[in-house]
Design a protein that fits this description.
It comes from Murinocardiopsis flavida. By secondary structure, the chain is mostly helical. It has helices spanning about 10-15, 30-60, 75-85, 95-115, 140-160, 165-195, 200-205, 215, 220-230, 245, 255-280, 290-295, 305-325, 330-360, 365-410, 430-440, 445-455; strands at about 120-125, 130-135. Helix content is about 65%, strand content about 0%.
Length: about 450
């Protein structure tokens, strides 16, 4: 076929994914080792990410960051965890204790489950057993990520509701609205991946990116996913659910000790999970970059792919720190407008473009035709958005000017609590006196006085 490769359909699924028969046949002790390895990896990532968060932002802001506990401050996160675990665990009065205690666990557990379908490498030999570097895979594994993300927000909402605090309740409501809006855009970014790969299995999506990563082919979806993953994890500049300057500490206001630690753990584990999903869906997963494969044919064999996956994962995690240290917190109305008015409409149009390209590829058209059609769609959409944006700015400026005029009229109208003021164009006493003095001291007036005096 000369069209777009890896299209939807049964034949494309067989060609694109290695098959689910590789899973479910491992001995129980191999499954246990994989599960423990995932748990240890996530916990170590949380400790290292907290430390890197503070150290890298310290360098960005020309300070050292934590550097007292351990060599170069590497054990600072461990010290903070011990400190939090030793704090007194207080429960406020009149709270729903069952929900109050269960909320942190509800927020943390789903993030651990989602990582089970992430492929870290191909089939390798582990203690004499041939197995894949992935705990499991499902025909709808990609949907598991969205399901666990939607369940995790229940912990935040219930924690804010059970705390019986207005600040915590506002934080929980903010988190729920934020997750709903950004999860829709995130799910739509996955749709383009499903269309192009023809499968929902994570291992099949990785194998479908052997010719070219989806971050290049589906760049708009990749860019929108990066934005939505930051909004999904409540990180700066989208951490409105915590909003220290507005609602104290948000949904975590009434929590302390290990319960606060669980919420903190849930946030960072979610960061690790969404970063791993971005590597799997858009950055080729464990596949080495194309130029490296052409130079080194064995780059995608053995345990080496796990190294490429780790490097890509670290790059995405650095993006979290970079955005937090560079961008200020947005207003809540701006956050909602970005999700509902910009990201979701763009994704809907982009999915239409991708579906059109795939249909043209199935009909036998070449890369030039399908690419040209896709580029034409993008140019037309960009032009329409530019015109709309210009007209929107004009109407917004006119509306703002009208509001200013109304405010001025209200300030001078006694019916609205204002008071009448003299018009700004009326002559002032000082200006008239100055004009009279200027006329009196002019050369013509002086000459006339001398003539009269001499006569």
């Amino acid at each position: 076929m000369t069209g777009v490769p890896m299209l939807s359909g049964t034949a494309a699924q067989v060609a694109a994914e290695p098959g689910l028969e590789a899973f479910g046949n491992d001995p129980w002790w191999i499954v246990t080792i994989k599960a423990l390895a995932i748990f240890v990896f996530l916990m170590v990532c949380v400790l290292m990410m907290i430390m890197a968060d503070r150290k890298v932002m310290g360098r960005m802001q020309q300070r050292h960051g934590p550097n007292r506990f351990g060599p170069w401050g590497l054990l600072q996160s461990l010290a903070d965890g011990v400190k939090l675990s030793l704090k007194e665990d207080l429960i406020p009065r009149n709270v729903d204790k069952a929900v109050y205690i269960a909320a942190p666990a509800i927020a943390a557990v789903p993030a651990f489950i989602a990582f089970s379908i992430i492929p870290v490498g191909p089939e390798v030999t582990m203690f004499g057993v041939e197995t894949r570097l992935q705990l499991t895979d499902l025909p709808i594994a990609a949907l598991l990520v969205l399901a666990t993300a939607s369940i995790g927000v229940y912990g935040i909402v219930l924690g804010g509701w059970a705390s019986q605090s207005p600040y915590a309740l506002l934080g929980g409501l903010r988190a729920s609205a934020q997750v709903i809006s950004y999860e829709i855009a995130m799910g739509l970014s996955f749709v383009a991946v499903f269309i192009f790969s023809g499968t929902m299995t994570t291992s099949g999506i990785v194998e479908a990116q052997k010719p070219l990563w989806f971050a290049i082919i589906l760049f708009p979806s990749f860019l929108i996913y990066l934005i939505t993953m930051i909004g999904e994890t409540n990180r700066l500049p989208f951490d409105l659910a915590e909003g220290e300057g507005e609602i104290v500490g948000g949904f975590m206001t009434e929590y302390g000790s290990m319960k606060f630690t669980m919420f903190f753990l849930a946030e960072y584990v979610n960061m690790v999970t969404v970063a791993a999903v971005s590597v799997t869906f858009f950055l080729g997963g464990y596949l080495a970059p194309g130029p490296l494969v052409s130079v080194w044919p064995g780059a995608n064999e053995g345990w080496w792919p796990a190294l490429w996956w780790l490097l890509k994962f670290m790059a995405v995690m650095f993006l979290f720190i970079w955005t937090r240290g560079s961008l200020p917190r947005t207003r809540y109305d701006q956050l909602m407008a970005l999700g509902w008015k910009i990201l979701i409409p763009i994704q809907l149009v982009w999915i239409t473009v991708v579906a059109t390209m795939v249909v043209l590829g199935n009909e036998g058209f070449g890369y030039a035709v399908t690419g040209g059609v896709g580029l034409g769609f993008v140019v037309v959409i960009a032009a329409v958005l530019a015109v709309w944006r210009r007209q929107h700015n004009k109407s917004k400026a006119a509306e703002s000017a009208e509001r200013v005029e109304e405010a001025r009229a209200m300030r001078t109208d006694p019916a609205f609590g204002g008071f009448p003021v003299p018009p700004t164009t009326a002559p002032h006493y000082g200006s008239s006196v100055l004009a009279e003095r200027t006329e009196t001291n002019s050369p013509a007036s002086t000459k006339k006085r001398e003539e009269v005096t001499g006569a």
